[in-house]
Amino acid sequence: MAGSAIGLGNIWRFPYLVGQNGGAAFVIVYILACIVLALPIFFAESIIGRRGRGNTFGAMKKLAPGTRWKWVGLLTVLTPVILLGYYSVVGGWSVDYLWKACTGAFANDPRGLFGGFISKTWEPIIMHTIFMALTALVILLGVKNGIEKFSKVAMPLLFVLIVAIAVYGMTLPGSFKGVEYLVKPDFSKLGPGSIAAAMGQAFFSMSLGVGTILTYASYSPENESMLDSGIGTAVSDLMFALLAGFAVMPAVFSAGIAPGEGPGLVFDTLPFIFNQMHSVVGAAVSILFFLTVLVAALTSSISLLEVGVAYLSEEKGMSRRRSTVILALITWAIGIVCSLSFGPLSGVKVIGLSFFDLLDKLCSNVLMPLGGLLFVIFVGWKMSKADVRDEFTSGGRRNTRIFGLVYFLIRYVAPIGIVIVGLTALI
Ligand code: PHE
């Protein structure tokens, strides 16, 4: 679950959203959104997945037979396919940048490198294809041998790498301003849009509302402490986002780059910094950094693909191999259009947004909060309290004292909070 949560959301998305929304004040709202809105959804998804013992559609069907709730399950099979469509494009960027780091491409003046790269037709598509192939490969190896083995090695490695890079970043001249930017709040920069962005980012980063946590929970043993999984995932995810912030922001300020420049921030900034370092150190750090990004992206993309694979193999009787190939091809095709929307299709806009931005906004600001809202309503209002308690406390053996608070958060605080934030952003 932590492998799913920690990904491009932390390294690529979090720093540029912090930059666009004024720094530390956004970080505070984000932490609040994680605790009050995201954690209850995490528990709701875990309860549905473990109680229903199945994919999103199957679990809902089992827990609320003869109702329309199973269609909510189906919605959350579709969302991760769309999300992975554009996620894998950014995954492709990280493959490309790892390659660039290995071949020493940052040693020449790296300014304009990113813009030049994403506007091309073929290079980003090839990289996106490699990324999708890697994702499918891990899924084909299965849950225990693929997902679990890969994550167990990759996750600790990630922490070591990002800490090393953050520590290095803070030694750069002028980097102190970046640290200050992350810890000194200016609430005047926060609008209702920023609050919605913080909520969307909390869901994106903790992999919520798209059935990922639900599906993984369906594989987890009944006596595992749900509270520990939730807190463990939330804390490691948050720590990783903050570490990524400290790895990126000091570097941004040290290079005199505008923190609000948007999705290109990480890819634009860091090569510039690597270029300033001693050539051997710069090469080593840049390879380590983009390896980190790639590994983090893969442990997330496999979890996105797994939702649909679980659905097709459990509900439609398809083999895992066939389900993986079909879904990988669909997401690959979506990704191609997203990738082209930075280049040849950059003029094509839907409601003023490029195809890539449209899918990102659709997923994180609409579909994920909607999925999360429906999950908490299902657990808080449709399932019986006795069943919810039984599942959360593993049959009365664990975390019984905190259950009252968790149930209150699931039943009232999270649904009302999501609706209020959603409506404020709309108005
Ligand atoms: N949480 C992942 C990240 O931060 C993205 C993700 C979203 C993965 C939803 C699975 C489900 O990069």
Q: What order do the helices and strands come in, and which of them pair?
A:
Elements: H1 2-5, H2 8-20, H3 24-52, H4 56-63, H5 69-102, H6 113-118, H7 122-140, H8 143-170, H9 176-183, H10 192-205, H11 212-218, H12 226-255, H13 265-276, H14 279-315, H15 320-340, H16 355-382, H17 385-392, H18 403-426
Helix pairs in contact: 2-10, 2-12, 3-4, 3-10, 3-11, 3-12, 3-16, 3-17, 3-18, 4-5, 5-7, 5-14, 5-15, 5-16, 7-8, 7-14, 7-15, 8-12, 8-14, 9-12, 10-16, 10-18, 12-13, 13-14, 14-15, 16-18
Bound molecules: phenylalanine (PHE).
Main features:
427 residues, Hydantoin permease, 18 helices, globular, binds phenylalanine
Describe the model.
By secondary structure, this protein is mainly alpha-helical. Helices cover 77% and strands 0% of the residues. The protein is built from 18 helices and no strands. It is globular. The relative contact order is 0.20. Bound molecules: phenylalanine. Phenylalanine binds next to helix 1, helix 2, helix 5, helix 10 and helix 14. The site of phenylalanine (PHE) has 16 residues, from helix 1, helix 2, helix 5, helix 10 and helix 14.
